[in-house]
Amino acid sequence: MSVLDNWQQWKDFLGDRLDQAKSEGMNQQVISDVAYQVGEYLSEQVEPKNDQEKVLADLWQVASEEEQHAIANVMVKLVQRG
Question: What's the domain of life for this entry (predicted)?
């Protein structure tokens, strides 16, 4: 089973990567930029595997670049919460 198949596993995976980035000294702006780049990659290259990912993909597709950055920032906050 891929980490993308289950929403909670996906959030846990992102949270682990976020913790790793922080422990390696990445600041919040760099983390935010990376989250945006990940979102862009996923929207272009990866088929959503569950309903939550489908909603995010749909939102990403209709969002402006500024809104996409906001979505990425919200995802960072979501995984920080655990």
Answer: Bacteria
Residues 6+ apart with CB under 8 A from 35: 72, 73, 75, 76
| pLDDT tens readout for residues 34-64 | 889 888 988 888 888 889 889 999 999 999 9
pTM of this structure:
0.79
Query: Phi/psi of residue 46, each to 5°?
Result: -125, 130
- Give the closest residue to 4 by CA, choosing from 73, 13, 29: 13
Which domain does 75 fall in, by range?
3-81
CATH number at residue 69: 1.10.760
